[in-house]
Amino acid sequence: MKITGIKTFLMQAGSPPNSKAWAANYDTINSGWRNWLFVKVYTDEGITGVGECSGWPRVIETAVTDLASILVGEDPMHIEKLWQKMQVAIMGHGMTGVVGGGAMTGIDMALWDIKGKALNTPVWNLLGGKLRDSIRIYAHAKTPDMALELKAQGITAVKAGGMADPVEMMEKLRAAVGSDMDLMIDCHGPPWLTTADAIALGRRLEPLDLLFMEDPIPPEQADGYARIRDAVAIPLAAGERAATIWGLRPLIEQGLVDVVQPDTGRAGGITQMKKIAAMAEAHGIMFAPHSGSLGPIAEYAALHLMASIPNALMLERIEIDWPGRNDVITPVPKTVDGHIAVPNTPGLGVDIVESEIAKYPSVRNVGLGGGDYAPGTGGSFVYAQPRFMRSKWLGK
Ligand SMILES: [Mg+2]
What we know:
- By secondary structure, this protein is of the alpha/beta class.
- Helices cover 36% and strands 16% of the residues.
- The strands form three sheets. Strands 4, 5, 6, 7, 8, 9, 10, 11, 13 and 14 form a ten-stranded mixed sheet that branches. A three-stranded antiparallel sheet has the order 1-2-3.
- The N and C termini lie far apart (65 Å).
- The structure holds magnesium ion.
């Protein structure tokens, strides 16, 4: 079998008016910043594979087109070889971040899809077989009402972020949902907390028995993570912004986190994610892939991967998402009792609906809204925060 071509499918992926999801600030597809980029790899035997590149999709589309030139004519079954070929080709431009990682991710995912279809078996079977038939998900909630609504739907874990007074809100969430639901907090920036403030916040949250505290400080500050880890009795989680085994290595090898969160759409593909999971396993670290900007094809890849690794904790999901999410792929995954069933059809078991994707042309893809970087706002103090920002985290 030979690769004959690679096509990209870029789209704006909006959120609905009155959405309770993370993207609630963006009430039309044109005002939002989320894009999805899907790729299709074609072969001379008529088998096609589908993949997804998240990270910075409009830029990654160009990277995919560049990489296609070195892949046409290659045998798609030799996935590791082709991954290494792409990595070497990109290296001339510097080490790979999420743009190169995202491009390799979508192509790698499509190659696994092709291999599964060619061998008439699901991708999880190629990865060593299944440890579980369904994957536990967690959703986002930042009010007690949202958390209770999700709990009523069978969701067993929720994460909160972007709150004005996180200690008070996390206390309210714990009081509302009781002790049988997992609660997590995402402190992600920018603006970021300082290490000292993250420790202060963590100590105040300790009585709430959180499953993890995510991105308490910028991901590149390994020494800060070590200080928080040693000072606060809450498991730490991070890793959504990093790509490849080398990008995730410091967090894992230095034992800086208890949960590692690479993004299935930009960390380097199923090939890299499986290795990252194994590195984490060796260090007693659980694996909970990031979602957020992630689209529905990469979510399928995460289901296959998480079915096959022992340290799968749970999968992040925007459970109340833009309704168009369900129109651009087939079939649509269903959440039942807080879990999504692992597909048992050959390959990834999913395809894009090209005619639906064409209805949502990409408009823009940067996340900084009007005024976010104006002098005197939180955006202009990326690290050490002035009192008006710190008070939002630590109380008055
Ligand atoms: Mg996060």
